[in-house]
Design a protein that fits this description.
359 residues, mainly alpha, Rossmann fold, Glutamyl-tRNA Synthetase, domain 2, Helicase, Ruva Protein, domain 3, 4 domains, two-stranded antiparallel ribbon, 9% strand, elongated
């Protein structure tokens, strides 16, 4: 690595002042002693010693009068009363410069912590070319703050008790620099998704529904005005699919079946619909739905029992064909919620369309 050649290192102070007064451009550098070990304690790495022969005489003040980072960070941290400097390991080699500056200014140095670099699964440094790397990127994709914080705390660190899901208070009480690894932590998107999914499942439905609105609106499935006017219905919608998602941007693909014309393409769904008893079952289903003025949550919760009682069909022979007819799938969210969310008109329309195709 190129280093300053020391051209002006030994210029006498008086001469330097005269040359500055005459209008020569200048910079102010940190004049480190030759071949001196500078030792500091790092809360992750222990005692670290770096010889000044490995360090450059850093510019502290540029020719335009502006301080460089190395000068500014020391002064800024001192004036703010910073007790712990926690940063990436790439700054480890700069720390002796900062320690020397603190000593030169007669100030007490803070504690230093140099965290290992976060790596991808190939053990290479994260980069934008490989995908999202900023917190803002993950927020835009619908990762919750609680999920991001919890997961990032686990990259290169683990608590003594082995817990992986921890809120902020638990993280604060359990965190210990002694358990931070010295080697780079692996950023595992699958693990982030798992952690975030936990928080989505536990999130207050009112808040989760509110946070989800931009993702649904941007998908074109619903307009915000409609969501606001039917917010209780919308909360049921989000509550219905929250178990299936690990980030908010996933919501549209899990609710799309509720909107527009349903096309049944799944082989398993077609197999259920084509069973011999299904035409009579769907006729009964339509009759039961039409017997209600509207499909409230209460009605939806008991509707399949009504169909069972009237048709005599039970279990999988009841639920799977009806689910296939109204949702296009044989598996999915709670059946009663689907019935409520679709509403009377769509339930009849979809069941009748399947019935017509079976004739």
């Amino acid at each position: 690595m190129p280093k300053y050649d020391g051209l002006c290192r030994e210029i006498p102070l008086d001469e330097a002042k005269k040359r500055i007064a005459s209008g020569e451009e200048y910079v102010v550098r940190l004049k480190l002693p030759h071949n001196k070990d500078i030792t500091f304690n790092d809360l992750v790495r222990g005692k670290v010693t770096i010889n000044t022969n490995e360090i450059d005489d850093q510019v502290l003040m540029k020719s335009d009068g502006f301080p460089t980072y190395h000068m500014a960070v020391v002064v800024d941290d001192h004036l703010m009363g910073i007790t712990h400097v926690v940063r990436g390991e790439e700054w480890l080699s700069s720390t002796p410069k900062h320690v020397f500056l603190y000593q030169a200014l007669g100030w007490e140095s803070p504690e230093y912590v140099h965290l290992p670099t976060v790596l991808n699964k190939d053990r290479k440094k994260l980069s934008k070319r490989q995908g999202d790397v900023s917190v803002e990127d993950f927020k835009e994709r619908g990762y919750l703050p609680e999920g991001i914080i919890n997961y990032l705390a686990l990259v290169g660190w683990s608590p003594e008790d082995g817990d992986e899901i921890m809120n902020m208070d638990e993280l604060v009480s359990k965190f210990d620099f002694d358990r931070v690894g010295k080697s780079g932590g692996i950023f595992d998107t699958d693990k982030l998704n798992w952690v975030n999914a936990h928080y989505i499942k536990q999130y207050p439905i009112e808040k989760l529904a509110e946070l989800s609105i931009p993702y649904v609106v941007d998908s074109g499935l619903l307009e915000e005005a409609y969501i606001r006017e039917n917010f209780e219905w919308y909360k049921v919608l989000i509550d219905t699919i929250k178990e299936a998602i690990d980030k908010l941007e996933d919501i549209p693909k899990h609710i799309g079946f509720l909107f527009g014309d349903l096309k049944i393409t799944e082989d398993a769904a077609m197999e259920e619909i084509n069973k011999e008893h299904v035409p009579d079952l769907l006729k009964t289903f339509i009759e039961v739905v039409n017997s209600h003025d509207e499909i409230s949550l209460e009605v939806a919760n008991g509707l399949m029992k009504e169909v069972q009682k009237k048709s005599g069909v039970k279990g999988k022979n009841l639920y799977m064909p009806v689910r296939a007819a109204i949702s296009g799938n044989v598996h999915g969210p709670e059946m009663s919620n689907i019935i409520y969310l679709l509403g009377k008109d769509k339930l009849v329309q979809r069941a009748q369309k399947v019935l017509n195709n079976l004739k």
